[in-house]
Design brief:
1 helix, 104 residues, 3-stranded mixed β-sheet, Archaeosine Trna-guanine Transglycosylase, Chain: A, domain 4, mainly beta
Length: 104
Amino acid sequence: MKKVFVVYATDNVGTVVLEPISVGDRVSCNGERSDLEVIALADIAYGHKIALMDIAEGDTVLKYGLSIGSANCDIKAGEHVHAHNVESNRGRGDLADRAAVAAE
């Protein structure tokens, strides 16, 4: 069984750190989440993320206990999580501008 690393129990994604994952691999977790197991629905490269549970469109994607963005579509447990299905909120000056306007 392949393993992914999960830093915080609240994370809904795990990071591929030991070896790449192939479609159909059974994947479990090391770290704070050891209670989850998923079947990979895609090939996932080293350093990339896998969804540990279903994430609905608009939901926050959590890695390292922090938001790394919002799902821009429904993401099924076992899917590759990357720029194609997550809108990042890191370094987003436009989001900061929107928040400032909303606060006025």
